[in-house]
Specification:
The protein has helices at 56-67, 75-80, 100-114, 128-142, 152-155, 182-201, and strands at residues 34-38, 83-87, 122-126, 160-162, 165-170. It is an alpha/beta fold. α1 crosses α6. It contains six helices and five strands. A hairpin with a 2-residue loop joins β4 (160-162) and β5 (165-170).
Amino acid sequence: MGINHYLKCNFPCDDVHHSWVIPNISIDRKKVKIIVISESPPVNREDYYFGGKESSFNKSTCIAFHDAGYPVNSIDELIRQGIYFTTAIKCNKKGYLVSSTTLKNCSKILNAEIVQFPNIKVVMCMGDFAIKSINYIMKEKIGRPVIPSGSTYKMRSGQYMEASVLYVPSYTQTGDSFNLEKSKRRMIAEDIKKAMKYLDEN
């Protein structure tokens, strides 16, 4: 069954369009070692991770892994390597930002998604929404955030571990602006290398 079969949303959120997007894929959950969490789904579903090779999420993510020294042509190739992709917010945004209430609501769904994978070694938090959502989850589980507060630029240099899982704060690798921001491309590539190195060593 697809991942979305096990998830549901009953939350009324005013700052998102109610256009529920969960990866509808069948996957060997035991083989997944890395989860990449970006911020929110695109306005057009065709641009989501699983919209094919021409989707914007597919293209920008492949560019990010290529920058890091892992040339791939599709999300499917990365999934076969044990990397799973999702978003912190499950509906596309109405504006640039969303409320803490929406993030908390979606973090409950994200947690229900993550716990389906028993062998996770790395969680990549691609953008502020992803970082905050993971921290909401960890506050519920262990009573504290796993990634400290602060700018992503400063937090990137830290090593954030919990129960042998590495949490990597980074910038979002999806969207058209990604292709234009050279400094962020470099930092995202470094963060992907960190995640892959940890996986190789563990």
